[in-house]
Amino acid sequence: MTTTRIRRCGEAALLLDCADLAEAVSLAARIEQWRPDALDVVAATRTVLVTVRDASALPELRRRLEALLADPADHPVAPPPSGHLPASNRLSGFRIGASDPNSGSVEGVADFGDAGSNVSSDAGSDAGANAGSGAGAEGGVAGVTIDVRYDGPDLAAVADLAGMSTEALVRTHSSITWRAAFGGFAPGFFYLVDARELDAGRADAGGAGASEAAGGPSAKPALPAVPRLGTPRARVPAGAVGLADRFCAVYPGASPGGWQLLGTTDARLWDLDRPDPALLAPGMTVRFREVGGRSGDDRGRSDQRR
């Protein structure tokens, strides 16, 4: 570990400064599994916040965190098989659908089970409680596949920034296995990052051999960092799929926002009718699948721009 600072934060929390996102996410998962009488463990881009019920617990919490950082090998952590979702509402293995604009459907559709089954259900159904990891799981970690119509107003601009056609951008974006690094901004809003970035960071911490096995921490990202809009939109619709910096996210509700929008989905990222309203949880994997039409379609153009 390269974390070098533990700071008091408020009356009943400690804030750990991390070297980068990969370390923050890895450390948060390690503490989450260890659970040192903490109320909450919250990762961000380069920090981890650990809260307790009472300030009297902070000295012992600090001592245990210092021990964890000094010798992380004493506290091995494996990714939880279903993210951090409660057992009563595991939606792993679901493919969360975007309705085909030509089908007349207006609801998101969830397909779950193994790859050979095609059981349809409303995305908020309690059927998810008994769903296995199925086709949506990657390496034992819970995951969902979200259907997207790549009809966003910034699709062509982001393709130009990346030096590729819109078809290539869609293909690249939907080929990435994204991982929910942390939540923020609004209920159900999760910052997704290319899972290879986090895996490379963990491999780098494990030494040169581990790094090479993971493909190397310096592997070129599939997509470039995407700047936020110079002037945020006053209203971004629920279900908008966007990019900002190296993150991807789905807006859970209508709100102002400055992310570059690639498309839309009918998946409900936040639904108070579910036992656990948030569709995603830290550590879960997300894949995007193209459905329906596409704005700025250039499928007839050459795909040689890079």
- Please tell me how large the radius of gyration is: 20 Å
Structure class: alpha+beta
Sketch the topology as an H/E string, one letter per element.
EEHEEHEEEEEHHEEHHEEEEEE
Largest sheet: 7 strands, mixed
**Fraction of residues in helices?**
10-25%
Provide the residue-averaged pLDDT.
73
Cα distance spanning the termini: 37 Å
Shape: elongated
Strand content: 15-25%
How many strand elements?
17
Flag low-confidence runs. 75-137, 206-218, 296-306
Question: Can you list the strand order of the major beta sheet?
Answer: 8-7-6-9-17-10-11
Instruction: Give the number of helices.
Output: 6
Written account of the structure:
This protein is α+β, with helices and mostly antiparallel strands and about 300 residues long. The protein has six helices and 17 strands. The protein has a seven-stranded mixed beta sheet with strand order 8-7-6-9-17-10-11. Strand 13 and strand 14 form a beta hairpin. Helix 1 packs across helix 5. The longest helix is centred in the N-terminal third of the chain and has 14 residues. The relative contact order is 0.17.
Q: Quick recap of the structure?
A:
The chain is of the alpha+beta class and 306 residues long. The chain has 6 helices and 17 strands. The C terminus is likely disordered.
